[in-house]
From TrEMBL:
Domain of life: Bacteria
This protein's UniProt keywords: Flavoprotein, FMN, Oxidoreductase
Protein name: Alpha-hydroxy-acid oxidizing protein
Entry cofactors: FMN
Entry annotated with the keyword Oxidoreductase: yes
Similarity-based family: Belongs to the FMN-dependent alpha-hydroxy acid dehydrogenase family.
Positions of the FMN hydroxy acid dehydrogenase domain: 3-386
Keyword Lipid biosynthesis in annotation: no
Pfam (any one): FMN_dh
Gene3D superfamilies listed in its UniProt record: Aldolase class I
Amino acid sequence: MKRKAAGVLSLGDYEALARAHLPRPLFGYVAGACEDNLTVAANREAMRRVAFVSRVLRDMAGRTQQLSLFGENWSSPFGIAPMGLSALIAMRGDIALARAAHAENVPMLLSATSLIRLEEVRTVSPSCWFQAYLPADRDWIDGVVDRVTKAGFGTLVISVDVPVLGNRENLIRERFSTPLKPSLRLALDGVLHPRWLLGTFAPTLLRHGMPAFENSSATRGAPVIARNVERSFGQRDRLTWDGIRHIRDRWRGNLVIKGLLHAEDASLARSVGADAIILSNHGGRQLDGAIATLDALPGAVAAAGDMPVLIDSGFRRGSDILKAIALGARMVLIGRPFLYAAAVHGEAGVRHAIGLLRAEIDRNMALLGTKSLDELGPDYLHRTDGAAI
Ligand SMILES: Cc1cc2nc3c(=O)[nH]c(=O)nc-3n(C[C@H](O)[C@H](O)[C@H](O)COP(=O)(O)O)c2cc1C
């Protein structure tokens, strides 16, 4: 593994490797966003607009990036965002991600559209969280909540930014759909990517059968490759704060709402009893033109009071993470690069990626002159556009 990882110096390096490794529609599914990619660009631009003002000549020995959340101590202020279809992209992808996160003591969020049964993932990684997409239908909600409870999860994340799917034109261009439709072109694409075909797809089929959407509801859903099967989503566009109140009454563990951007929604989440929120524009995959999450952060933090605010979308470096922490985020989630790492180098690749980020944070804390995450605040930051921090 050391040899394989030698050339991977930053999370960004995994993208090029994954592009070569994966069939086109699959790489397109992970890398893509929607419409004109305005939000993807806004996420990066917002990070560029914030600069550090470091402090010097402080004793930096014993600095730590540990933090506590929901009564647990985590080794770094970042985790792995929920990503659907990971087990089609990487060999046993959800398990590779969950094991790596558990070993490195950072959270991993198992997606509602994952392809390995949540009970199995929870067994190999007791620290992972489960993310659900839920419709308004109370029987559907109760079925999922009860299943996740029975499996022993401590944290349930409800993603609320997909009432309908974003306009992902790139998926149409790449001929990607869920389920994927079998075609000569898809088969040829597989043959042209033999490492994926022989290292992920073929062994998955041989050992585990055709993957299916295992965790979207209380029972098994559609297979991931099928000609004439429609996936059932229920009426997700009818879920409201009332539904969240109902979930709060039924779910005894930590409840997290993912996919908020507005300060008033942060405050509503708190008032219905959420234990934390995740500011997210879904990595630019839903509403194109949505505000960068870093720009939404100060308002949400002010509205959230003592409720922890987590954040994702476009974070790639330890420095990006430290900017969010200085603006009041408790933790940052990262999506695509971890899935690329799992695709090309499996669990060891994900651990390597976690190690790279951790080293960047540690180095930058020393360069910034801060020994703990609590010390970081807006006084370490400057807005290059002259706006107030
Ligand atoms: C391939 C892929 C699948 C995703 N699937 C889900 C999902 O099932 N549930 C969810 O809440 N978010 C999903 N997301 C969004 C991520 O959780 C996260 O918000 C986003 O990827 C963060 O941006 P980043 O990839 O730029 O780090 C997905 C993102 C990607 C890239």
